[in-house]
Amino acid sequence: MKFSxxxxxxxxxxxxxxxxxxxxxxxxxxxxxxxxxxxxLDIENEMKNAALEVIRSVGADGKKVDISQIAKRNLxxxxxxxxxxxxxxxxxxxxxxxxxxxxxxxxxxxNGKLCExxxxxxxxxxxxxxxxxxxxxxSTFATFDxxxxxxxxxxxxxxxxxxxxxGCFEMLKAYAENFTVQSNSFFFSGGTGLGKTHLALAxxxxxxxxxxxxxxxxxxxxxxxxxxxxxxxxxDSVEEEIEKSDLVIVDDLGAEFATPFAEATVNELVNNAIxxxxxxxxxxxxxxxxxxxxxxxxxxxxxxSFEVIExxxxxxxxxxx
Length: 321
Ligand SMILES: [Zn+2]
What we know:
CATH class of the largest domain: Alpha Beta
Oligomer: single chain
Helix content: 55-70%
Order of helices and strands: HHHEEHHHEHEHHEHEHHEH
Bound molecules: zinc ion
Radius of gyration: 30 Å
Number of domains: 2
Largest sheet: 5 strands, parallel
Strand content: 5-15%
CATH superfamily of the largest domain: P-loop containing nucleotide triphosphate hydrolases
Shape: elongated
Number of strands: 7
Number of helices: 13
CATH architecture of the largest domain: 3-Layer(aba) Sandwich
């Protein structure tokens, strides 16, 4: 999943909120504790003094000072603090700042990288955003209306678009029901408004319900993201997100701006999917032939292992008007 600027902003806000809440709580606890157990201040003073002595002991004269005594005093003070807290009937870490994530202290960064808690937050927020996206919410198998496809028999094909699309629909529904990480890949081809994105999102919805992780983005979205990464302006990596997902859906292939970088990216995407054996759904308004014209034979020959579904009928968006 590609995270939008807004999602980053919300995650930042949430992290700041967690930090502030934790610090506020710690400060309230401490004040209350000291009122009832003023000895804490003495113990803390002892710890502070021990620490200062260690610093002073590293003298400029290079004289070796035995700090084992100071270290011992410090350990004793720490132990006294724990005992005091316990004796007052609290857990040992009661006076520590209760960060949600102990690893990064709710900063979101650990070892110079996005902390797991930060990534989890971004994912959680973007699932929320996607789930709220009206397009995704309404694109399920249940809302796929076969009546928008003509039931007039196409004399060339020997069947009606409705008959044909019902077959595709049933097949893709079964695909989503029985999906495993070894499932096959698809290439959805056909003009706009024929339900390609609808059925792809229906698969996404069903797989998410079934606990799979699905990466969905348009080809141009992926390319934009990769360009950002190239110039170091992005913290998340498309590659990592794709790596982590069970199914990759690339929408609107061929609609992106034709550049050597775009071509190389598409080539690599298809290549990696095939090498990793990761199921993939490529969606394009272009036919296989048009795609070959656009990206060359090399890319298209790689799509050979994809099952091609040609969407037919009339633009549903026009019919719905
Ligand atoms: Zn963290």
